[in-house]
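Box 3.1 A note on notation
Throughout this textbook, protein chains are presented in two layers. The first layer is the amino acid sequence; the second is a token string describing backbone geometry. Keep the layers aligned when reading.
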Amino acid sequence: MQNIADTHIGSDIPHDNFHSVKVNLHGRYMLENRSEHICIVLEMSPGSALLRGKGNGRIGERIIAYIDHVGRIEGAVLRQTPDGFSMSLTASERKKDKLAAQLTWLANKHELDLPEDRRHERITPRNPNNILVISDGRQYRCRIIDLSLSGAAVEIDVRPALHTSVTLGTMRGTVVRHFDDGIAIEFANVQQRMTLDQLFR
């Protein structure tokens, strides 16, 4: 079983005093000009990441990204590559420890035959109808497609901008993705399963 502590540094990612693992994680990132681009993270450590995407940031440019299984990351472009860039990650020690644990899990997911992180199991609510409240107080009827302890996919007629703060039920969160019929929300805090059951089941 692979652990981040004994994984070798990849040749395409700068040495940052952390060990990196090869991954294949989809996400989106935003440049300083607020343009957003789809990306795939090819390699990652708690201190840096190698992204493939069409929007190539300038060296030193601040990047904010939302990556599947990892959540929000931010940092600055370290080096440009032919199809993307590598970036440093700015995070607290607690966040880096959490990221190291997530990367260890991702590195071993296939070996352990774990199709999903059970901490983020998707739940289909029995009563999907709810109200989404935007940070400016506007309220919209919505339908919850599915939930996890860390977020929700919501069918809704409006498209709040990415990174907009919203409230679903009693849970605060942030809009992290748009799709054809709605939005994906990342909760501000990981929820308890009992809380979700009480609110939506």
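Confidence is low (pLDDT under 50) at residues 4-16, 110-119. Residues 93-112 form the longest helix (20 residues).
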